[in-house]
Amino acid sequence: MPSRPTDAGFPAPRAAWLRGVTYAHRGLHGQGRLENSPSAFAAAIRAGLGIECDVQRSADGRAVVFHDGELERLTGEAGPVAARSVAELTRIALRGTGETIPTLHDLLGLAAGRVPLLIELKSRRERPVAPLCRAVLRDLEGYSGPHAVMSFDPRVGHWFAGHSPGTVRGLVVTEANARTLGAALKRRLALWRSRADFLAYDVRDLPSRFAAAQRARGLPVLTWTVATAALRQRAQAHADGWIAEGEGLATARSDA
User: Fold this and answer.
1) What is the pLDDT of residue 30?
2) Residues whose CB is less than 8 angstroms from the CB of residue 230 and which lie 6 or more positions away in sequence, other chains included
3) Which parts of the chain register pLDDT below 70?
4) 88 — alpha (psi -120 to 50), left (phi > 0) or beta?
5) How many angstroms separate the CA atoms of 217 and 115, rounded?
6) Strand pairing of 50-57 and 63-65?
7) Cα 221 versus chain centre, distance
8) Strand locations in 35-114, DSSP E?
């Protein structure tokens, strides 16, 4: 018997593996390991944690793992990530480390299917998402480990639904400064447009009527960023999976 479709129009079991997992937010960083670095990802794998990471597109169309649109905060370089080629980016040292910016291909090779991956695509409203999505999909082709893409931008999920329907896709949501009736309608429209298989919800907004309603319909609800023991308790009460760092991760590891 086919499974019941979710509110987004897809069977819930395709994303069921997301539930019950703690994901290290940008890897297990700290203690000399920078966020989204190879050592942070390796540490998460050793700890048996899932990995959440951020992906940008290089000037020549490759997917690189880096959170910010600009290089300044995390490196000794300046300017937009999107203006550099992959060869240039992978030579740039991450601040205070001997490591350089990794590609998504590098992360997939390191993970090798051992832990689940959440890949957040960092889009910009004024730019088309297709080039970024294509860069990510090119690296994901042939990768058999558990993985999902997600974005605040519903265009990303919509693109993957049309070009790679087998890829599990999520919508990242925050209700910060968006608690009006109009904002609630926009959230529903974004969910519909994204054709999301799961939500990744701001933990500060939980409990949330919208998140609870989608969870009741079968969509897994993950939550971010769980950074304290108190937030961990809230996350466990209102979500199915936890994107965590700091004390939120320490609590998760002690619970394991």
Assistant:
1) 94
2) none
3) 1-12, 251-256
4) alpha
5) 27
6) antiparallel
7) 13
8) 50-57, 63-65
DSSP reduced 3-state for 49: coil
Q: What is the pLDDT of residue 12?
A: 54
pLDDT tens string 154-199 = 999 999 999 999 999 999 999 987 778 899 999 999 999 999 999 9
Q: Is the peptide bond before 207 cis (omega within 30 degrees of 0)?
A: yes
Contact partners, residue 1, CB within 8 Å, separation at least 6:
none
Threshold 0.90, pTM exceeds: yes
In the prediction, which pLDDT does 13 show? 79
Q: How far apart are CA 22 and CA 50, in angstroms?
A: 6
pLDDT at 3: 36
Strands annotated E in the chain:
22-25, 50-57, 63-65, 117-121, 147-151, 168-173, 198-202, 221-226, 241-244
- Cβ-contact 36, 26 below 8 angstroms: yes
Rounded to 5°, the CA angle 166-167-169 comes to 130
The pLDDT assigned to 191 comes to 98
Residue 121 CA to residue 112 CA, distance in Å, equals 20
Strand partners, 103: 64
Tokens of 63: 């997917």
Judging by beta carbons within 10 Å of its beta carbon (0-12, 13-18, 19+), is residue 70 exposed, middle or buried? Answer: middle
- Tell me the residue type at 174: T
